[in-house]
Amino acid sequence: MNINELFENFQKNGLTNKLSGELIVKGNSIVYTFDLNKNVEEIEAPSDDDEQECSFEAISPEELLLEAYTEDSEKLQEFLDENEEIDNWTFSEPETSETIISFRIF
């Protein structure tokens, strides 16, 4: 199976819709990208008029990026394993910036 066929299988099986990030074919690899600015819904803070007390721990951007990467890479690897393709593909180490995490499948 070549890279284009793999990408088509991801799409055909609905995997691309189940991921938090985006996949694109670039050369001889598939590039996964998760961008906090595009993919995280804005959470409204409760107004002062609200009587309910809301307590939660703030999650850092690094934690959000790592969480999205971990969940999505597990989904991709599980799909490859189920289709007996796991040994045919390599995942690069993730690269991060302030709001983006990405890796390649080749």
Q: How are the SSEs ordered, and which strands pair?
A:
Layout: H1 3-12, H2 15-18, E1 22-26, E2 29-35, H3 36-39, H4 61-82, E3 95-96, E4 100-105
Antiparallel strand pairs: 1-2, 2-4, 3-4
Give your account of this protein's structure.
This protein has 106 residues and is an alpha+beta fold. It has one domain (3-41, 56-105). It is 38% helix and 19% strand. It contains four helices and four strands. Strands 1-2-4-3 form a four-stranded antiparallel beta sheet. A hairpin with a 2-residue loop joins strand 1 (22-26) and strand 2 (29-35). The radius of gyration is 17 Å and the shape is elongated. The termini are close together.
Write a brief structural summary.
By secondary structure, the chain is an alpha+beta fold.
Q: Structural class from helices and strands?
A: alpha+beta
How many domain regions? Answer: 1
The number of helical runs is 4
Uncertain stretches = 42-46
Choose one word for the global shape.
elongated
Write the element-wise H/E pattern from the N-terminal end onward. HHEEHHEE
Approximately how much beta-strand content do the residues carry?
15-25%
Tell me about the largest β-sheet.
Answer: 4 strands, antiparallel
